[in-house]
Amino acid sequence: MKLEGKIAIVTGAGSGNGREIALELAREGATVAILNRTKEKGDKTLSMIEENGGKGISLEADVADAKSFKESISKTIEKYGKIDILVNNAGIFDGQETFPTTDEEDFDKIISVNLKGVFLGTKYTLENMLENKNGVIINIASVAGLRGGTASPAYTASKHGVIGLTGDTATKHGPDGIRSVAICPGMIETAMTKEMLEDPSEQTKELIESIPLKRVGKPEEIGKLVAFLASD
Ligand code: NAP
């Protein structure tokens, strides 16, 4: 097991990529704090971990809300004494919206969850990691963080921002013993893409056709990659 004795936080671990990341980290021996907006979904992930013989805690948290997010990070530190791994995974998606169809409020909402959430998680977890001179922060960005035209303006901007925050953390805190890494998945089969995949538009079909493996990814594949990146 690669992660025995490690304490991990995974945001948005009540579904899709986050759930599989939490399950895989636990399979590799980490104790996992599951932070999710809807507590019941986080509880379900925790029970799946416990059924496999793993350990963890489920906490209700909104990553866009500093008070709620900070409290759940503090509770994790109180219970386990440290944080070794933070996975900033929670995110929302507004499909293929364009500038004319994106309201200011929608833009703010996406940025608050996808980008400010990563800032808050990093800021409040880093305090503990810096004390321990050890930690890894893994941010779930997207191919939409590398180029325009694959998603909405808000989602694209938020994921470009996530890559920016990752680089800032890695360069400023690498010397303190902290690693920060972003991963940029293409389309993955989760609740976020369910509608698009069940009734694919021409654009979605073309997108799948452009993937060298000619298939979308599975959340389990993201889980295994994150477990590798979290390992020493
Ligand atoms: P998903 O199945 O919809 O899961 C998202 C999870 O995040 C849910 O458990 C959701 O909880 C939680 N969440 C949403 N907003 C939150 C908030 N403000 N605070 C706390 N938790 C919150 O989506 P997914 O596909 O697994 O996406 C996970 C990450 O992967 C996202 O960052 C996404 O941008 C990224 N990603 C996905 C794909 C893809 O094709 N699926 C590709 C590239 C990157 P509730 O249900 O309670 O709201």
In the sheet with the most strands, the strands line up as 3-2-1-4-5-6
Stretches with pLDDT under 50, minimum 5 residues: none
Radius of gyration: 17 Å
Relative strand content: 5-15%
Rounded mean pLDDT is 97
Associated small molecules: NADP nicotinamide-adenine-dinucleotide phosphate
The end-to-end span amounts to 12 Å
Q: What would you call the structural class?
A: alpha/beta
Order of helices and strands: EHEHEHEHEHEHHH
User: Into which percent range does the helicity of residues fall?
Assistant: 40-55%
Tell me about the largest β-sheet.
6 strands, parallel
How many DSSP H or I helices? 8
Question: How would you characterize this protein structure?
Answer:
The chain is of the alpha/beta class and 232 residues long. Helices cover 51% and strands 14% of the residues. It contains eight helices and six strands; from the N terminus they run E-H-E-H-E-H-E-H-E-H-E-H-H-H. A six-stranded parallel sheet has the order 3-2-1-4-5-6, with helices on both faces. Helix 1 crosses helix 8. The longest helix is centred in the middle third of the chain and has 29 residues, at 104-132. It is globular, with a radius of gyration of 17 Å. The model has no long low-confidence stretch (mean pLDDT 97). The structure holds NADP nicotinamide-adenine-dinucleotide phosphate (NAP). NADP nicotinamide-adenine-dinucleotide phosphate is lined by residues 11-12, 14-18, 36-38, 41, 61-64, 89-93, 113, 140, 142, 185, 187-188, 190-193. NADP nicotinamide-adenine-dinucleotide phosphate (NAP) binds next to helix 1 and helix 6.
